[in-house]
Amino acid sequence: MSSSSANSMGSSGGGVAAAAARMDPEAATELARKGVTLLLLDVPQRTVLGVDTQVFSVGPRFKGIKMVPPGPHFVYYCSPSRHGNEFAPTVGFFLTTHTSEVIVRKWHVQEERLVTLSEEEEIRYSEAVNRFEFDDHLGPYNLSSFGDWKQLSSYLSGSVIERLEPIGREITIALETSWMDRAPQTDMDRRLMEQLREDKFANNAHAQPERRGCYYTTIPASVKHRNISADELTLLNLDRTSLLESVLAKSYQGQEDILLGELQFSFIAFMMGQSLEAFMQWKALVSLLLSCSEAPLHTRTQLFVKFIRVIYFQFKHGFQRTHDSRSSEDKGNSLFLDEAWFSRDIFLYRLSKDFLAVILEAPSVDGDLLAWVGILEPSLSDLVVVYAYPGNISETIMPFLFYVT
Question: N or C: which end of the chain has fewer CB within 10 A?
Answer without folding.
Answer: C
